[in-house]
Amino acid sequence: MIVEKEPAEGLSTHKLLIETAKHNVLTAYSGSEGLEMLQRFPDVDAIVYDTASEDLTCEQFTREIRKQNSKCKIVGLVHRDRPEDGASCGHKQIFSDDPGGLLKMLEEEFGGSSKG
Known about the structure:
The protein is built from 4 helices and 5 strands. It has about 120 residues and is an alpha/beta fold. The chain has one domain: Response regulator (Rossmann fold), CATH 3.40.50. A 5-stranded parallel beta sheet has the order 2-1-3-4-5. The chain is globular, with a radius of gyration of 13 Å.
């Protein structure tokens, strides 16, 4: 699953990137929507969470996710101009402008294909 602010135009480049690597991706546009989606689809393996989300900090989101699914890995998508937002975010953190690093991390964690 990816949780990030809805892009002003077009599709999420992060979602497209992850799908290109043969991962199935659910999309939520806020932390609250991500929590609701996880209730409907509890078998999510990992969540890529944009640490600049406006409704929940990554720390708050991680705490709520742990209540629902203790095994789900959370990756903080950190913005270089706001690195402090990802300081206590989930399992791992990666810069939002590093698509190669995101793909490499997903492959190391889950191999070539995953559920979400």
